[in-house]
Amino acid sequence: MLVVEDEAKLRDLIRAYLEREGLTVLTAATGADAIALSRGADPEIVVLDLNLPDIPGEHVASELRTGGDPLILILSARATDEDRVRGLELGADDYLTKPFNPRELVLRLQALLRRGRASAGAGDVRSYGGGLLVIDEGRRQVRVFSAPVELSPSEWGVLLTLARVPGRVYSRYELVNAVRGYEWAGYERVIDTHVKNLRRKLDADETRSGRAIVQTVVGAGYRLGLTQDT
Q1: pLDDT grade, residue 48 (50/70/90)?
Q2: Within 13 Å and on the Cβ side, how many CA atoms surround 114?
Q3: CA–CA separation, 210 vs 224, rounded Å?
Q4: What domains can you pick out in the chain, each with its CATH number?
Q5: Cβ contacts of residue 164 below 8 Å, gap of 6+?
């Protein structure tokens, strides 16, 4: 695990709480150090402050996604709903505002780790819509028209949930709990953001398929618009 925080006292506090849970923790005080450490250590999860002294945290998040596929929890003093949405549009998997309860941070990270490890442990390969969409859970890969599609961990979680029962409408509440592992008041807009990003990536060739892979059911939620192949 990598903690990226420029304030030394806060960085040490987070590290102490995480190590108390038996986690191996690396720390970085700058964006440049975070990028260098992530390339060498390939952390499973990153706690990322956005207000860093050298490189904007948004740029660091983009670099982390380019160099690997860690789960990212943004830790920021930016507390509006718009800030949360923008953070998750960067590809972050969770967003916690300062000041915060260290125990809540630990619980959120544990939920992210459980979800990531459960996903990695699955070995199922399923196809939908006559092979239009293929989901390989074991390799954590998605293909549309045989072309690979890169998804953030949260987008991956949304897709897996929708694909469990194709055609079934999943409410935002259900998707929140499936993706996060707990409830978060006001998370509906964030789920909408994940679905928007997911739809943009999967349905880029919608004119070719003639149908949307992820469909909106007004007032109810979202569903997978393809049937599973037998």
Answers
A1: very high
A2: 12
A3: 14
A4: 2-119 (3.40.50.2300), 123-224 (1.10.10.10)
A5: none
Helix or strand or coil: residue 187? coil
For residue 26, the surrounding DSSP H or E stretch is strand 26-28
| Euclidean distance between CA atoms 193 and 95, whole angstroms | 13
Average pLDDT, the chain: 84
Q: What is the pLDDT of residue 209?
A: 55
Q: Tell me the pairing of strands 125-128 and 221-224.
A: unpaired
User: What residues form DSSP beta bridges with 135?
Assistant: 126, 142
Per residue in 155-202, pLDDT (tens digit) is: 888 999 899 899 999 988 888 777 765 555 556 677 888 888 888 888
Q: Is-contact 89 195, C-beta < 8 A? A: no
| Cα–Cα distance measured from residue 146 to residue 89, given in angstroms and rounded to the nearest whole number | 26
In whole angstroms, what is the distance from residue 146 CA to residue 59 CA? 30
pLDDT of 120: 55
| Residue position matching structure tokens 């390969």 | 125
| Per-residue tokens: 94 | 């969770």
The residues that bridge with 87 in the sheet, in sequence order, are: none
- Minimum mean pLDDT range among 49-53, 68-72, 103-107: 68-72
Strands 45-49 and 133-136, by their bridges, are unpaired
User: How far is 216 from 183, CA to CA, in rounded Å?
Assistant: 22
